[in-house]
Amino acid sequence: MAALTRFTPAVVEAILQAKRSRESDRAAATAGGVTPSALYGWLRRGRRGDPRFADFVNAFESAERAAIAVRDDALRAACRAVLETSA
């Protein structure tokens, strides 16, 4: 139950910011000052329908998708650059 008391707006924002910065789940949890197991517990609860965590799950997954999109864009740009220099 101690992990639930750490579920504060400041902790959530630190975790989400880390995910937006393409950090791993472990690093995001650390950025928020919680353990990875606490983070995974919150995600599990939200995915199982606990309304206290539903918005967090949506924001976390959105941050993950945004980070993946940025990574993919950078990879595409790098591939284009390689192809242009080798042509």
Task: Describe this entry's structure for a reader.
By secondary structure, this protein is mostly helical. It has one domain. It is 82% helix and 0% strand. It has 5 helices and no strands. Helix 2 runs antiparallel to helix 3 and helix 2 (9-20) packs parallel to helix 5. The longest helix is centred in the C-terminal third of the chain and has 36 residues, at 51-86. The mean pLDDT is 90.
| Category by helix and strand content | mainly alpha
Q: What is the number of helical segments per DSSP (H or I, 4+ residues)?
A: 5
Query: What share of the residues does DSSP label as strand, in percent?
Result: under 5%
Rounded to the nearest angstrom, the distance between the terminal CA atoms is 60 Å
N-to-C SSE string, H for helix and E for strand:
HHHHH
Q: Which term fits the overall shape?
A: elongated
